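Interim report to the steering committee. The following record documents the input for Anoctamin (574 residues).
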Amino acid sequence: MLIPAAVVGLVCSMISFVQLSFVQKQRTNEICTSDLAICPICRTGDGCVRLPLNSFCTYAKISIVFDNKETVFFAVFMSFWATLFTKLWQRVENTLKIQWNVEFENMDTKLRLEYKEKSTHKTWSYVYERPQPYTPISTKAFYLTISYGACISMIMIVVLFVFGLAIFRVIITDLIQRKWTPSQQVHVFFILILTSACIQVIFVKLFANIYRPISEWLTNLENPSTQSGYDSSVITKRYILAFANNYAPLFYMAFLMDRFYSPDDPPNSFQADRCGPTGCLMPLCIQLCFLMLLKSFVGNILTLIVPKLKPRFQKKGTNNTNRPQWEREFDLRPSKRYLLTKEFMEMIIQYGFVTFFVAAFPLAPLCALINNCLELRLDAYKLVTRHRRPVPRRDSGIGPWNNILTLITHLSVATNAFVLAFTSDFVARIVYRFAKNETLVGYIKGTMSLYDMADYGRTLQAKSLTSNRSSRMCYYKALRYPPDHPKEYQPSDYFYYEAGMRLLCVIVFEHVVMITNGVLAYFIPSVPQNVKEMLHHERTQKFELQMKMKSDVRRRKWRKVEKNKGVEKNATAV
């Protein structure tokens, strides 16, 4: 299913590159030829330089590649693609159930041995007609509160790290702006985005190794009664923590970064973390690209290299060639119950990358396709050569992962709508063109507000430091009143008008796509027609065979009765 998505995404990206050279020159020329002074993060000092707007010309060209009409089309296409994927996967899953003879409801009622050992209460079971262990509701509520409270605490750690990384970018930018030359400061934004993306990938990999064993430990506290309930609880916790771990930086850059910025904010606060005059779509694209490529690349490299380096640092033991095969395989990693849960989790997280923020990175399906083709062989090599043979068990499907896939599919529609409306400038350009009689002349300057650097702190009396007012004025990306206005630095009326139009576009986009997806899902049955016909044929044959067997049993009984009557008549005659 990634093949058509990758092809459409590649075509949209190529069209965007072509338009950058021939069609979108007006949008880039307005930035590349403007000398508006951009407000720096630092406020005072000799090294605090106001960079001109044309220094962001390269970033403007890159942003235009991912912020155009083709991006909107691709976001709508991927919303339909996600629904089509889930429905077609259900058809494949139901077909495999028939082929593998696992078409049954997974009704697990057998109590876990650990549950029996830890349960201190008994209750009479009218089904089994004997006492059965059980856990009181108050005890369940207590341990559930502790379990999910610990999950919330770990999510807060992830959120604090994301905001800490934002403060890191702000502090480093402040230091660089004071020491680097203006020609060097142009590249500060791009360097910090790359650095923070690499740090985020390292944190994601490290935190994943922490919450996996913690999820099982918290589930042991809950002590579910059945094994299926235990597995569902572990998977739910792991996905909640993986969701926060992988998507928190993306949600921050898409919806929070640069939203609360004000020139009066202190330079060492996360509010000063800005996207720049070109918007937040490029930082979001870079972060998503690094999370998809670097995370998978590092994981695959570790999978190949680490097991080969381990024997070099271990003591030499018995020669493996002289040992039986079962002894050599015993030294491999044990195939634990949740061995495949990690692989499922990587695919589900990648599915979220492809569907949640695809409006910012149309090449995400292509990257996912290439990664999956490589990882398919790497996982096969890892499972065959690095792990012991797993104990097979029957199951009727992928279980709770189906519900997670459906949840991601519905949530992706909302995230793409908000990315197009609030992260991208697509709606803002439409509103500006409607207000300015179908023209975008002056759009960039219209999205920026004026600030007097002498007003910072109010107690610095910086106005006395220079008599030239123009040398103190700078621009920042916002819709606020200028310094001389009675409502200085407060959101303007146009800000509320534009925000209302953005929210209206979100509502329209979401409802149109959801209704269309509902109609599409209705006309795609979960079970193929040939499978239905095959099941009906099998049920008919089974019913006819049962009726034939019953008829044969009745016929044999009748013959036996007739035979017994004949024997009785002969005995009477004798």
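Residues 529-573 form the longest helix (45 residues). The committee is asked to note this result when reviewing the revised timeline.
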